[in-house]
Amino acid sequence: MRLHTLRVTAFGPFGATQEIDFDALSAAGLFLLHGPTGAGKTSVLDAVCYALYGAVPGARQSPGTSLRSDHAPVDLPTEVQLDLTVGGRRLEITRRPAQPRPKKRGGGHTTEKAQTWLREYDPEDGWRGLSKSHQEIGEEITQLVGMSREQFCQVVLLPQGDFARFLRADAEARGRLLGRLFDTRRFAAVEERLAELRRTAEAQVKAGDDQILALAQRIAQAAGPAARECPMPDVQPGDPGLADAVLGWAATARSGARERLDIAASVLATAEHRHAGARSTLDDERELAALQERYAETRRRADAVEAGRAAHEEARERLARARKADLVGPALDLREEAERAHRRASEARGRARARLPETLADAGAEQLAALEHRLREELGGLESARRAEQRSAEIDDERAALERQARADDELVRDSEGWLAGWETTRRDLQARLDAALEAATRTELLARRLDPARRRLDAARSRDALAVDVTAAEQRLTDTREHAVSTHERWLDLRERRLRDIAAELAGQLTAGEPCAVCGAPDHPAPARPSDGHVDRATEEAAERTHRAAEEARAEADQALALVRERHARARAEAEGTDDHAPDDDTSGTAPTVAALAALVDTLADEHAEAYRTAAGAHAAREALAAAEREQRRRSEERQRADQRAAARTSRRESLDGERASLDEVLDRARGGYAGVAEHAAVLQRRIALLVEAAGAVREEETAADRLKEADDRLADAAFRAGFETPEAAAATLLDDAGQRTLQHRIDAWQAEAAAVADRLAETTARDAAGRPPAAPDKAREAFDRAERALREAAAGLDSARERCAELGRLSRRAADEVRGLGPVREEYERVARLAGLTAGTSADNARKMRLEAYVLAARLEQVAAAATARLQRMSSGRYQLVHSDARTGGRRAGLGLHVIDAWTGRERDTATLSGGETFFASLALALGLADVVTDEAGGVRLDTLFIDEGFGSLDDQTLDEVLDVLDSLRERDRSVGIVSHVADLRRRIPAQLEVVKERHGSAVRLRAGADGLSD
Q1: CB-based burial, 11-26: b 16+ in 10 Å, e otherwise
Q2: End-to-end C-alpha distance for the chain, whole angstroms
Q3: In the structure, how many helices (H) and strands (E) does the chain have?
Q4: Ordered strands of the 908-911 beta sheet
Q5: Residue ranges of the alpha helices (H) in 31-90?
């Protein structure tokens, strides 16, 4: 990393812009940054750190601390710009912290956010912007520099009181710094990768052990009692002997289960033998009990048969008499039916005579029939009168209908005449409505043709007013860019003139002793020109020229943008002022129409167009209404004509009906015979005829029923005598129906069948012999059988359980063995990875010094750093001290990154903390320089071309100071520069290249002294 130019504005003690040319300072290899206390020497280093990392070192970045200079004008922003080369890239970093600024409108201040810009220089394209993001720029710079802000301040920018911290840092802190400098992340990544592989393999092994233990738990459950005799081994997932312990324990469990299987088979055989004996005993007892019960039941049935013998004989006798009475049954049925018929006929005759007049109460059937015939003749004479009466009613209904039609036609005629009276007025109104709608349609088209141009003019007027504002803004931008271009052009010419005045000094700066001058060709350069105050180099002039060209380009772009906006404004104004034959009277061509006037015109035309459109929309309805009214006029005229025709027809029909009604009234008066009507007279006759017919029939039916009853009595008496009964009543008392006879027959048959069955069972010898034996005990035999059966089931269940247990144990044991075999390669891989991870992490017993892999690599680098530092430390200490790397462990910490100093005067190795203040300073300086050498030589490291040392030289004596400066001066051999920040007066005499910070009333300023006589502001 090499610094080129630092430009600070309103930063810390610097109230104005100060520029520091590090290229001029670094040309000498060793330069001094000095000035009075509080002038701002450290602020220069703070600006470098702020430009790189956006923060200053140490406590100066504490909350509430402002980086803005109190001497700066309110309108001058605080800014730091650093031009540097890092990682082979030329970059420019510009940072502005958050700071207050005056508000653009109104009074007071507002806080402006922090801003950052990053640019990169390309030899072909010049400077080009890369990013404006704080985060992106911070990540890019940190990656290129290779150090954090704290590490940068410790290695490159050693601040006051902190430059010995690296020397005295512990192993962990020293390791973090060296790891970033030497890019040993790949070794740390190897450690992390091995640790991750170990964790992954360990997780796989533990997952496999969990599977094995889960199978062991299932084996313990399947083993049952055998597992209690041999408990499961107490192992945890990951234990080395877990697999062998589980497999051995499973084999023991299988052996115990097979022994229990043999025992269960023996128990089952014994239970089967006992069960067969109990079954035989139970069958014998059941058979004996059945025989004894059969004999006892037979005796009970024999007693019952003897007890029912008398009833059996009585039933046989009664059935025989009933069968004789069956011969008299038909005669009895006939006599009962004749008696019922005679009773019904007598009741019907009584009811019929009760409805007849008293004069006919004792009349016979012939007398009643004669009276019926006479009344029927009279009823036949009333039939023609009934038809005449029905026709008279029809005539009345027809007359009423004619009257209703007459009233309806009268109402229709009155309504039609009233409507037709206003027909002409209605027709004229509808025609006028239609004419107005057609006229409105024509007006709508005319207004539509005027409305669209008016709207376009309104839009153009609005665009014209908006573009007028844009024209004003563009003119202001053009004025600003033109002024900026003029100012940049003047500055460029001024810088060019100043450079030409000092061109001799610029050419003198390129002279080399012994080389010919490019102007005069002389090899001797006795009095080279010196640059004056405010000397301008070529880069500054070129930068000003580029700024001028950029300003000219911005002016040209602003001029082009103004022309474009003016052209658009002119088009909009012309369109807004376009002529219109229908424009309002106050719209003259001499005055540009306003937006309000055009908006009013558009609103007026839109309202008129909407009103005309609404009126025109009713044309179709008006046309339809007129056609409907004409159809209604024709319909009402026709209806009035038809009503007149129907009135004439009704008059003729009334006359015809009146004549017919007169002839019918004469016939009806004769036929009513004192009744209200013919129908009433006919109904009375019909009722009388019905009573006579009913009474005559009842008399005839009673006479017939009496004859049939007398004949039935004679037949019954003859049948009872032939059947052997004294009277018909005796035969009737003995008579039974079919159901009664079947019941008696079933009772007789059942007794005979039971008597025969009892006789057969009493003849059985087996039942009789069983009855002579002691009573059977089947319940006790059943209890014994149940006990034997339960024992058999339990023995069978035990055998099945033992078989299933043995089969399950075998299956689970095979699965466990498969799991162990499958886990073998994983376990071997885990053991191999665990050994490597422990070795690289420093936790393995094989790693005697407990050094991590990254620490081991950094220890090698630290040995190189110590060797490089010793080369300078011996010169600084006159050969007394040298730095050595120590890999010894201190306390409980790991070894690898220790630093000791060897004192040649005592020959002892001791800790660096025992050095004095001055010794600590030049030892730290030697270590920092050695660290920079090793980092630069490291292929993947960061090149540190510039170092800053802030104070510490005041603790050195003159001899040591000379030796330290000689060492620092030797750095030019490696194209490296060292900046010393100190106020020691002797250093100003010893170091010709100086940057002086001057403390003034209006803010500090810097002065560059490149040689013994050259001094510039």
Answers
A1: bbbbbbebebbbebbb
A2: 26
A3: 27, 17
A4: 881-886, 898-903, 908-911
A5: 41-53
Q: Of all helices (H) and strands (E), which one includes residue 247?
A: helix 242-307
Give me 588's structure tokens: 């003259």
Cβ neighbors of 544 (< 8 A, separation 6 or more) are 488, 491, 492, 495, 496
- Residue 40's alpha-carbon distances to 98, 141, 432, 558, 989, in angstroms, are 21, 25, 101, 43, 21
497 by DSSP, 3-state: which?
helix
Integer CA distances (angstroms), 955 to 36, 792, 959, 967, in order: 18, 108, 12, 17
Q: What is the phi-psi region of residue 263: left when phi exceeds 0, alpha when psi lies from -120 to 50, beta otherwise?
A: alpha
In the structure encoding, which two tokens stand for residue 693, read together? 């017919």
Residue showing tokens 């990875």: 833
Q: Return the higher-pLDDT residue of 870 and 984.
A: 870
Q: For 32, list phi and psi in degrees, rounded to 5.
A: -115, 135
Contacts 24+ apart (CB under 8 A), 919-922: 919/877, 919/881, 920/164, 920/167, 920/168, 921/163, 921/164, 921/952, 921/953, 921/955, 921/956, 922/873, 922/876, 922/877, 922/956, 922/960, 922/964
Question: In the chain, what percentage of residues exceed pLDDT 90?
Answer: 5
Q: For 283-316, write each residue's pLDDT tens digit.
A: 877 777 787 777 778 777 788 888 888 887 877 7
Q: Give the position of tokens 């799991």.
A: 819
pLDDT in tens, 442-498: 888 888 888 888 888 888 888 888 888 888 998 899 899 989 988 998 888 888 877
Q: Which amino acid is at 294?
A: R
Which of 128, 121, 144, 132 lies closest to 52, judged by CA?
144
Which of 441, 432, 402, 831 lies closest to 654, judged by CA? Answer: 402
Q: Which residues of 366-384 are buried (b: 16+ CB within 10 A; e: fewer)?
A: eebbebbeebeeebeebee
User: How many other C-beta atoms lie within 10 A of the C-beta of residue 172?
Assistant: 11
Q: How far apart are CA 366 and CA 350, in angstroms?
A: 18
Q: What is the pLDDT of residue 294?
A: 76
Task: Return left, alpha or beta for 977; rule: phi > 0 is left, psi -120 to 50 is alpha, else beta.
Answer: beta
Report whether 829 contacts 823 (CB < 8 A).
no
Task: Return the C-alpha torsion angle 778, 779, 782, 787, nearest 10.
Answer: -150
Q: What angle, rounded to 10 degrees, do the helices at 185-223 and 242-307 form?
A: 30
pLDDT tens for each residue of 787-802:
888 888 887 887 787 7
**Residues 833, 825: Cα–Cα separation, whole Å:** 12
Length of the chain as a residue count: 1017
- CA neighbor of 642 nearest in space, from 304, 458, 416, 953: 416
Residue 217 CA to residue 232 CA, distance in Å, equals 8
CA atoms within 13 A on the CB side of 155: 29
Query: Which helix (H) or strand (E) covers residue 994, if one does?
Result: strand 994-998
Report the alpha-carbon distance of residue 75 to residue 411 in Å, rounded. Answer: 104
Q: What is the pTM of this model?
A: 0.40
The whole-angstrom separation of Cα 511 and Cα 505 is 10
Give the CA-trace dihedral at 81, 83, 84, 87, to 10 degrees.
Answer: 90
Q: When comparing pLDDT for 118 and 1001, which is higher?
A: 118
Other CB atoms within 10 Å distance of the CB of residue 1014: 18
Of the candidates 528, 539, 536, the residue with the CA atom closest to the CA atom of residue 1013: 528
Q: Residue 573: which of 451, 463, 453 has the closest Cα?
A: 463
